[in-house]
Structure formats: structure tokens, C-alpha cells
Predict the 3D structure of the following.
Amino acid sequence: MWRLACVRHWAHGWYTSLLSLLNFFVDDVNVGISGQHGWRWIMILEGLPTFVLGVASWRLLPDSPGTAYFLSPSEKSLMAIRHGRQSGYTTSASEFHWRDVRAGLKDWKIYAFCVGQFGADTMLYGYSTFLPTIIRGINPTYSTATVQVLTIPCYALGAISYLLAARLSDRQQRRGTYAVLFGLISIVGYAMLISNSSSGVHYAGCFLVAMGLYVVVGLPLAWLPANNPRYGKRTTATGLQLTVGNCSGIMASFVSD
């Protein structure tokens, strides 16, 4: 679970970087292929893979290692052994029980994680949405294409810092320590952005925000389910965490405006 979360956010950071590069190439296109404006092609190129993979996952994504068609019998056996070695693993814990769902709904720690995830995701959505606006505010003379290019290094650093933090956190089995430390780095970055300083200092602040942002958002997504070994409670905790966290996108549009 933890390593999957690590890969997911590493991929998200690079995806956002490549998306900024895509915006650079198509943003200045007035009328492009098939008479469609550049911004329409951005929507098409972003949405089409998501739609196709979303439909395909119903058939291609296995429900468990035992039903994974791409694993050999020895690999399936190895996965079963790894699951058996997980802390708190039992046959009963790996099955769905409604009592585990009720236990999750009554656990205050899950709601505490949800509140924290809401705050972290507010920063994520605000940063991702308004980073071009922030950079343009640093130097209003920048063209739209230049602004998009200048966002790429910020996202790339965020992806790299997350991978390194995930590696260290996994090795030391310490999640909260790294979440707090990298959260402080983002706070310093925002302090630089709101300070009365030069444009170079403001742009450096964008890097510091990205450096801590993905760590603060990503670690709890692996931390919470890892501490709930029972399947029913783990799925309840993850569902609540993601639902509450994603609702922050509503608030982020007002806070970061």
C-alpha cells in the first residue's frame, strides 16, 4: 500500500510537469487541427486517456493478486506470503465485515486524518490551479508560454522531493516526522511569496512550496490505511479521507483567489 502511494504521487508530480509542457506547446495555438482551438486540445488530450483507462480498468484491473492474470503462479504465491507478513493480517481481517465499517465510522483518529487531509489538499489545489497566476504576478511581462514553462521545474522538484521523502520514510517507518518537516518547508515558501522581496525570491518560494506540498499530501494517504489492517475499516478510512480531502477543491478556489 505504501509503495503504491509513493509511485502514485511520484507519477502525479511528473504528470503535472508534462502537462505544463503540453500547455506551453498548445496554448498559443489559435486554430489548430480540425479547427479546434488550443485550449480545446488540452481538454481532449487530458480527458481522453482518463476516460479510456477508466473504462478499461473494469476488465484489466484485478481484484486481488490471486486473480491477477499478469502474475505467474510463483509470483501470486509470493504476494500471498507478503500479505501474510503484514502487521495485523489474518484471514478474517482480509475479508469485508460490516462491523469493521462501523468501527471505522466511530474512530476519531480517522476523522482527524480527514481534517488534516482537507487542509493539505486545499494547499494542493490552490497551488496547482494558481501557480501560473503566481508566476505571472512575479513578472507581468511574461508571456503565457513562458509562464507555463516556468511551472515545470516547480512540479519536477515536487516529484523528486516526494520520492526521496517516501524512500526515507519507508525505510525508517516514520511518517509524521517527514510530513511535519516538509510542511514547514512549504510554510517558508509561502512566507517568501507574500514577503516584500524581489521576483527571484518569490520564484524561489514557489520551489519550496512544491518541495513540501506533495509530501504533506501524499504521506497520509499511505499512513492511514497502513494503520488499519482490517479490510473493512481500511476501505472506510480511505474512502472518508479521499472524500473529505477532495472537497477542499471547493474552498481552494476562494482561499487562493
User: Anything to note?
Assistant: The chain has a mean pLDDT of 80. The chain has ten helices and no strands. Residues 2-30+86-255 form a domain with the Growth Hormone; Chain: A; fold (CATH 1.20.1250.20). Residues 138 and 200 are 8 Å apart (CA to CA).
